[in-house]
């Protein structure tokens, strides 16, 4: 059984790496191989979801690498693989034969595989590895058309933002390790940490999750991530990357509740994101940007669920949102490919020309709007019931967020169903590979509703192992459904003209609250300035000091050479010269002439005699 | 006439010869000093034989050997000096410091 789990993780990662590495030569076979791999992974995911295997291998001293499938992971792996299959099927049509298909499909599989590893990881070590691979592949996918500098720039922005937030996870892992209370860095044991360590762990986890999930204040990277190909958006926004943060918070909900302050902070950030990014979505005039802002808002609900302890509701919301959002992005991508535009005004009449796309997009948009009987309506109520139990304000703001989601969804719908300015009713059938995932996902959007009602909801709750979460009362379901219907109908009838906000507010929200500018001014600018200052300091002070030292040394050496060396040299030369002169003097009497030796001896003895005589 | 007188003569001859050998710079004079030293030795040896062991002929043989050696040595010495003088007009020891061709 554990072999299935290994296979589930290894299959997409291996095939993806191979495809991405080999590249161009296997472009022709890449789509087939990738879709086959994804389908196989889906089968494996369903198998492990029922079996709940658990594997562990030694990795580092005292830090085993573990993978396990429990209730939450089981639901997640099925969601991830199912969405991956659907998106890859659409990619076959969207990423045409002329593109670098092997690289694209390989990276997509790697991306999905990293997400599968993330949701099955049992220890922070493995989670970090998968988290990083996911971030790196997201960068490569957003910048897939690398020859366009703007797209590369967008990829860098997304990567740097998420990467900066990821440091929180390292901080948490470090704190967990340093505390000594979390032996093997297992995720289940993180709530056991106490004191200041627990605080640091919670802060780090929350920061990393907010960054990945594009919650406030990190939301802007999602807007830039729209520069990537549509299938990438469809996968990144629905079942991978952005939901990784939400998943992490849902998984570590005990940690949040143990800290005491973590729950409320997370819940309020989520709900505020849901409202504010909902308003941002309302202000967008570009379909993909609207959907991106909507992703932030919808993930905000999952984060709210994690903060309020409504794990069941959050998970249901996550699954339902994955279906709806991937569907919406797939349709938006199809329109972008066919019509060459993603601006809402230019998309007028798009739904009429492509009926399949139009109807399925409507299903997705209505699901996002929370209109009954589609999945997100009930799922949202399950998690809002948890919020209501926490406090009423949280529930009220959450409900406002839900209403706002109805506004932007209806706005998008209104545009695509408007009659085109130039009537053009030619029915252009979408490629079959695109239609299949569209219909499947649309059916899923409707069918997933049953998961939010007994008996399936209770089964899900049992599987997730979270007891004691409140169920939504009938009036809650009725209220949210009625609100969503009423607001959607109002926007639909009156058109987006009724959304006449003050101009400045619209400018501010359509520019994603200028969060990126804020990040640039508050963080990037100062960091770059500091770097420049440090570089100048390095050049002018440190470098110069080193150079000066070197130059001084050389000068000192030259002076020594000139002055001291001459003295020493002179002394040595003098000694040597003196010795030579003495030697010459000493050689003088050594003539080899016997008579001269005799004379010398006579002289010496005479002196001796005189001395003896005088001294005695 | 007695042995002491002869030994005195021998010592005087030897001393004069030694002085000459040590002091003379002229090669001819130096060799004359050597001649006198050997002469002294011959006189001493002959006197010792005559006064102490006249019966044995050994002494006579020794004296004759010494005379022969002296004659041969002198012949060689003068031959060298003559050759030197002919080639480089050398007649002093100082000038013959280097014996190269």
Structure report:
- The complex is a heterodimer of chains A (616) and B (101).
- With 616 residues, chain A is mostly helical.
- Chain A contains 25 helices and 2 strands.
- Chain A has helices at residues 2-22, 30-51, 71-94, 101-120, 124-142, 149-179, 195-212, 220-225, 230-238, 242-251, 253-259, 262-283, 287-308, 311-339, 350-353, 355-369, 375-390, 392-417, 432-447, 456-464, 474-494, 503-510, 515-562, 564-587, 594-615, and strands spanning 54-60, 63-68.
- A two-stranded antiparallel ribbon of chain A has the order 1-2.
- In chain A, strand 1 and strand 2 (63-68) form a beta hairpin.
- Chain B has 101 residues and is mainly α.
- Helix content of chain B is 77%, strand content 0%.
- Chain B has helices at 3-23, 27-52, 58-88.
- Chain B is elongated.
- The A-B interface holds A 591-595, 598 and B 21-25, 93-94, 97.
Helix and strand arrangement:
The complex is a heterodimer of chains A (616) and B (101).
Chain A: H1 2-22, H2 30-51, E1 54-60, E2 63-68, H3 71-94, H4 101-120, H5 124-142, H6 149-179, H7 195-212, H8 220-225, H9 230-238, H10 242-251, H11 253-259, H12 262-283, H13 287-308, H14 311-339, H15 350-353, H16 355-369, H17 375-390, H18 392-417, H19 432-447, H20 456-464, H21 474-494, H22 503-510, H23 515-562, H24 564-587, H25 594-615
Antiparallel strand pairs in A: 1-2
Helix pairs in contact in A: 1-2, 1-4, 2-3, 2-4, 3-4, 3-9, 3-14, 3-19, 4-5, 5-6, 6-7, 7-10, 9-14, 10-13, 10-14, 12-13, 12-18, 12-22, 13-14, 13-17, 13-18, 14-16, 14-17, 14-19, 16-18, 16-19, 17-18, 17-21, 18-21
Chain B: H1 3-23, H2 27-52, H3 58-88
Helix pairs in contact in B: 1-2, 2-3
